[in-house]
Structure formats: C-alpha cells, structure tokens
Amino acid sequence: MAPRRIVLDLNARSPNWALTPAAARAVREAAPPDWEVVVVSAPTSSDGDGAATPSDEALEAIRPAEVYVGFGITRPLFVAAPGLRWVHSAAAGVRGALFPEMLDGPVQLTNSAGVHGVPIAEYVLAGLLFLMRGLDIAREQQRDRRWDKRRFVEMAAPLRELGDARVLIVGAGGLGGEVARRVAALGARVAGLRRRPELGAPPGFWRVAGLDALDAELPESDVVILTAPLTPDTENLLSRERLALLPAAAIVVNVARGSLVDEAALVEALAGGRLRGAVLDVFREEPLPAASPLWGMPQVVLTPHVSPVSPGGFWPRQLDLLLDNWRRYREGRPLRNLVDKRAGY
Ligand SMILES: NC(=O)c1ccc[n+]([C@@H]2O[C@H](COP(=O)([O-])OP(=O)(O)OC[C@H]3O[C@@H](n4cnc5c(N)ncnc54)[C@H](OP(=O)(O)O)[C@@H]3O)[C@@H](O)[C@H]2O)c1
To answer: Where in the chain are the domains?
Structure first.
C-alpha cells in the first residue's frame, strides 16, 4: 500500500520564515512508518494570506498527498490533490485559502493564529511607548542636531503614561491577548471586542463586547489596536466616521490587515492633528506606494509588514503546533487552530 503523504511546502523566500533543517528533521523523525514526509525545495512566498502561484514541484508533490503544510494554499494546488484531508497554513490570515472548493468541502483547514502573538505584542508596546514618550519628536530633533526641550515641557506636550490610557483592542485572540496582558501589566485598562463575547474576557482584558459595541467604545479609547482578521465583517471597520469618534490625540495601531482601516481618512486625521499618531505594520496596498503621505509623517511609525518577525521564536512555536496537530490528526482527535471557514478565520 502507498504510504500516506504529508507535504511541507515551506521554503519561504524570506529566510526568517523558511523551514529550518532542524524543523524538517523533527517532522521526519515524528513520522510513523506508514507515512512519508515530502519536503518541497522550490522557493515559495510567505507574504500575505497565501495567494502565491505554486511551484511545479509543489504541484507534483501534492497530487497523492493527504496533508499539505504551506503558507496558505492556492486553488490549483488544492484541486490537484483529490485525497487531501487537512491543510495547515503557517500563516495566520487565511483569506486566500477560502476559495469555493475549500469552503464547501470537508478538508480541515488550520492556521497559525496566535503563533505570532509574542513578537507582535512587543512591537505594539514599542510603537506605543515610542509615541507616548515623544520619541518621534526627539528623533526629528536629533536628525536636525537640535537641543530643544520646549515640545516636551509645555503643558500641552504630547506625552502621557501608558498606564493612564484607555486601550481598546479589536480582536481578543492570539495577538490581542498577548498585547492585552502586556499593556495591562503596565497599568492600562484594556477593553476588547471579539466576535463571540459570550466566551468571556481573556486575561488582560477587564471586559469584552461584540463588534456592535465599537461605536460606543471609540470615544472612550485613547488607543485603538487592531488585531482582528480581515473578514466581510471587519473590512473597513475603522471607517472615516468611526475615526472621527476617537477622542483628540488618540493613537491608532494596526497589526492586522490594511483593509480594516480607511487609510485615506486616517491620513487626513493625522495630517489635521486630530490624532496623536499611528503605528502601522499593514496597509491597503503592499508594498505601500511611494506616493503615500504616510511615509512623510513623523508621528507615524511605519514598518513593511514585519511585526511578527522573530528569528528564534517562529519555528519552535510553529513546530510545536504542527507536530501536536499531526498527532491529533492521526489519532482522529480535534485539531487546534481549526479555521471556521464560514467566519473566515
Ligand atoms: N502583521 C502581521 O504580519 C500579522 C501576523 C499574524 C496575524 N496577523 C493578522 O491578525 C489576525 C489575527 O491573528 P490572531 O493570531 O490573533 O488570530 P486569532 O487568534 O484567530 O484571533 C482573532 C480574534 O479576532 C476576533 N474577531 C474575529 N472576527 C471578528 C469580528 N467580526 N469582530 C470582532 N472581533 C472579531 C476573534 O473573536 P473570537 O475570539 O470571539 O473568535 C478573535 O478574538 C490574523 O487573521 C491576521 O490577519 C497579522
């Protein structure tokens, strides 16, 4: 009988994300005798939600496969493998994998929700403290070799303590939870929004509500942090009207997906001085076009979608999840991080 096949299509062009030799070895060592592990060596993309064109090697390898592990999965790969039963995405966002055959079929889809929580939470803290301590202003002055205390010592100085801030986190999952615990540890009161508020407030949140509470929460929030997936319900969530509900000098942080925010309205609110600043790792169009006004705004901390990068942290966490889930799969037990295909995350 032909062995059961698991395909690892994880040779990311970005070295930080690429399957390490040690992780490949660990998967091989975990394989029972009736399984074969096929590692695709052709490069693949780890960008976005896994909508990359598949390599010929991956297309060939997946044909007799039962399990596929990649940075998402494309439709051509999916339909080439009639025996596929489980797809694991080493990325967290799965929008690119929700094509009709996946949505309507029985193949289980798991993702890497939560895997990026720690580095992204540290990124969010870094960005918030940077703005709240006025380091954006200091950096400008340093560039100009200018010693000037005025912006720091005037009564209207844009400085505040994170512990005094009212923080709203939209998305109380893997990312939101890690952010909440850290921000709460520094004294801030953290409210959260989640799709299923009936499941309660995870550690770090003093309360959670559903997305319908957003309009009521925004005027009470000095900081809004977006950590929810991009789904039909969250698209354009921070619209022009909602940005206008924020109190003066609020800070917007987006580490989720660019399309959650009306970027043009955000630019206007920043340029007009209504907002204190923004910390942005994701954009409606990536790479962010050179013409975007965001590039030139000192009160914006802007990074090229790299907030989860953690050279030492990613593969140990990913491997733990993958090996545990593969064991569960073989034993017919429920998988961790199972995507609710209809909910879109
Ligand atoms: N910047 C990056 O490179 C990067 C890296 C990783 C992830 N991300 C993005 O961040 C997203 C979240 O990642 P994660 O690991 O935290 O995923 P997760 O653990 O699945 O958490 C998602 C959270 O969003 C909430 N949510 C879903 N739909 C919602 C809605 N309509 N209204 C309010 N809340 C909603 C969920 O609510 P429930 O808890 O009630 O289900 C959950 O709390 C990913 O989908 C991805 O797009 C970006």
So the answer is: 4-115+311-331, 117-302
